[in-house]
Amino acid sequence: MAAPAAPLGNALEPSAYSLGRQAALDYASQHAYSLECALEVSTQWGDMDANAHINNTVPLRWCESGRGTFMRAVVRDLASPSADPGLDAQARDDLNGSGRGRGVIFGEVRYRYLRPIFHPDNLLILTHTSTISPKSLTVKTVVFSYAQRAPVGESEGTLFSFDHDLGRSAPWHAAVVEGMVRRGARKVGFDEGTKKAKL
């Protein structure tokens, strides 16, 4: 099988791109990250700062985009014929960020810088869920460098279910909880005996 071509205009040398991409895919497989939730990004000249490496704010934006990719994959799951009933098209749009209804807002993020990132490079942003509680969700994101063939950063974030119409937090829809569990989330703070959340 031929190696995948680098994206048009990609600055990383083709063989480095191919070897780095394969290393990233191997890492994703070994650590149970779904490629459906993965996002490939490339560094840009303007991402660098006076220290000649990628500015420390840039990976935070990549992780934000990775979380969006993850949520879109979850919403696609909820739209499939095998998904639990009860989540209509508008509710799925709201989860994707319509700014109304019951959506997702970001509450907290921690980012650990493992290595500096240099231009040019391509990176695979890998996100999966860790835990889900009645009103919040934790996700873990890894930033994997093709040029260095290694993780260069990792993030953990907390997302909250938020009712934009009422202006306050709200419990997750049951279908969202079950969808996250299918993607590996561990339930915390739910009373499994009565099947009701402790709110």
TrEMBL record:
SUPFAM superfamilies, per the entry: Thioesterase/thiol ester dehydrase-isomerase
Cited Pfam families: 4HBT_2 (PF13279)
Molecular function per GO: fatty acyl-CoA hydrolase activity
Identification of the protein by name: HotDog domain-containing protein
Lineage of the organism: Eukaryota, Fungi, Dikarya, Basidiomycota, Pucciniomycotina
